[in-house]
Amino acid sequence: MTFADLIEKKKQNQQLTEVEIDWLIKSYLKEDIADYQMASMLMAIWFNGMTEKETAALTKAYVESGITYDISDIQGFKADKHSTGGVGDKTTLVFAPLVASYGIKVCKLSGRGLGQTGGTIDKLESFPGWKSEISDNEFKKVINKVGMSLMSQNEGLVPADKKIYALRDVTGTVDSIPLIAASIMSKKLVIENDSLILDVKMGNGAFMKTLTEAENLAQAMIGIARQHNRQIAIMITDMNKPLGKAIGNALEVKEAWDSLNGKGPEDFNHLVATAVAITLVQAQLFDDFDIAYQSVCQKMQTGEAAHIFEEFVKAQHGNFSVIKNYDKHFAVANSLEIKAMSSGYVNFTNANQLGLLSMRLGAGRATKKDKIDFAAGIYLNADSGSRVNKGDTIMTLFTNKGIDPNWIDMAYQTFEISQKQTKTPVILKIIK
Ligand code: URA
Description:
Layout: H1 3-11, H2 18-29, H3 35-48, H4 52-64, E1 78-83, H5 91-100, E2 105-110, H6 120-124, H7 136-146, E3 148-152, H8 159-169, H9 177-189, E4 195-202, H10 211-227, E5 231-238, E6 246-247, H11 249-260, H12 266-282, H13 289-302, H14 306-315, H15 321-324, H16 326-329, E7 334-339, E8 344-348, H17 351-363, E9 377-380, E10 387-388, E11 393-399, H18 405-412, E12 415-418, E13 427-431
Parallel strand pairs: 1-2, 1-4, 2-3, 4-5
Antiparallel strand pairs: 5-13, 6-9, 7-11, 8-10, 8-12, 9-11
Helix pairs in contact: 1-3, 2-4, 4-9, 4-10, 5-11, 5-12, 5-14, 9-10, 12-13
């Protein structure tokens, strides 16, 4: 069999075997298959899709292409959490300490942000000295001491996905459900956690623009988890508006700290408490989701898990005091208030644009080499769905750059004020 035969087979919408998929991924990594041939295969997959078995085989081939993390010597139930990426998404920073406060271990690999969505590692680097590049031994030491650790994904993590993602990016094949599912899940399966809660974002600030697309991606990832015997639950959540009120690195860390101390915004608290409660049920610490949810909310109110976040940051060499003295450490040269032009109910409708604006203010990278300004970003003073009067502050922009008048136009395009109140739920669907 030649690679051309396999392309022909996929083009005719026939199922590839596990052996064939394994061979094509290995051959591509060895450069026995050229980019133009793989591009043709990816386009055939884009048109014809993949079955659950094919997608699981592709994921397996991805996982086997690089290093895996052995955490079998860490005692207890080990939980993981992942988000497909959204604006203002600082969930991990609150999820992990809360889960750890129940004795569950959180062993997590995280990434950096590119474009309008931020990355957890970038947010945590708001703490001067905080290190994400730690050895496997240090990772385990921090988990055993604190109950949680986050380290950055190794450059060599899942090399087959890295190479194929770069090709997808330039061949119009990124938006294929099986290819996205295999790409995301391979990076989760390299570390042997017991459970996974996945937050699939849906809306203009996310990869998946419609509920149907998000559901299809969720089902593809559940299929992979099933084939790999991994416990999984998926939340599909709204990303037409940002999560919480803070967008930008230090601003989001501060909001996470507030949430751990009973002062977080309602939508964010609800999403985090749901993710934690699902994990507690997965770990069989609770039989009933509602009771687990109430227990988590109580811990958030009393601030019981906050010390774990502080200990974790310090254990990875971060100076935690900056967040307690926020105004001193994250003062900016320019802050700009965006005011309501009329009275009515405010609704944030364009998370994507808020993410782009935050990036322009200095909070994100347009290219991998760009430097991040931790203090830059946006704070949404008004709550989505709340009543505002003409002249009230809707949001504040924080930057150390000179003010660009285009930012003001951009900011006004991200919300509407109408006479009708609309309140949309943050969690659209839970699939277990
Ligand atoms: N995130 C990934 O890791 N891979 C994709 O293909 C899309 C989003």
